[in-house]
Design a protein that fits this description.
CATH topology: Hypothetical Protein Aq_1857, Chain: A
Structural class: alpha/beta
Number of strands: 9
Mean pLDDT: 87
CATH class: Mainly Beta
Order of helices and strands: EHEEEEHEEEE
Number of domains: 1
Helix content: 10-25%
Low-confidence stretches: none
Strand order of the largest sheet: 3-2-5-4
Largest sheet: 4 strands, mixed
Radius of gyration: 14 Å
Length: 107
Amino acid sequence: MALTVTEKAAQHVQKSIASRGQGIGIRIAVKTSGCSGMAYTLEFVDDVQEDEQVFESNGIKLITDPKSLLYLDGTELDFVREGLNEGFQFNNPNVKDMCGCGESFTI
């Protein structure tokens, strides 16, 4: 089981942590939400909880809980720019379907 981050996403995360002034990485999780059933969540991490798993990719620590890892295994976090929009993109091989707005997914 693993989570990875692209070089472009790693650079964006490093800049964000530096401007925030603290943090050891980012937490990736899934929650029940949206029209397709699940949605991704991202947040800065200052402390790792005892039950969480830590993956390191391109110098970034990716932290997740065991339940979310079941849905996220093999996911690559990327940072993309499309026209005037930019943001994180989850390349998750487990996704079977996504809602039209791209905010939620089904496994």
